Amino acid sequence: MIKESEEYAKMMEDAERYLKTVEVAESMAWHDLCHMLKRILEATVELPGDTAEKWSGLAPFFCECGSQVIAAGYSTPAKEDEEIEVVVTEWVCPACLVRDTTKALEGE
User: Of 7, 33, 56, 86, which has the fewest Cβ atoms less than 10 A away?
Assistant: First the structure.
């Protein structure tokens, strides 16, 4: 049986290398998608005053699906020994976005 052969073991090593490569590529693509989403969302933020600054990144909350969301908003300068407050004005769940896009493409 081929499963018990040396050739099969070599094929499994190749398959393992392939899976690791795919995992890294998917991780890099996911990072790139999240970065682009941050930039798109940040461009929609309207600042409430001259001292506010735009902010974007991972939000401190999660989507109903359980994934962390990408958000954008603004922060205002804090006084010494105060925490900076970030106001989130826009957010998107990248997992839901990919899921919805996949469904739309399958429907075409």
Answer: 7
Q: With bands split at pLDDT 50, 70 and 90, how would you rate the model's confidence at 79?
A: confident
**CA 19 – CA 51 distance, rounded (Å):** 48
Distances (CA, A) of 7 to 16, 17, 38: 14, 15, 47
- pTM, entire model: 0.75
Question: For residue 71, what are the β-bridge partners?
Answer: 57, 91
Average pLDDT along the chain: 89
Q: Answer yes or no: are the C-beta atoms of 49 and 76 closer than 8 Å.
A: yes
What is the SS3 assignment for 1?
coil
How crowded is the C-beta side of 47, counted as CA atoms within 13 Å? 12
Nearest CA among 26, 99, 44, 42 for reference residue 66 = 99
Instruction: List pLDDT tens digits, range 28-56.
Output: 999 999 999 999 999 999 999 888 999 99
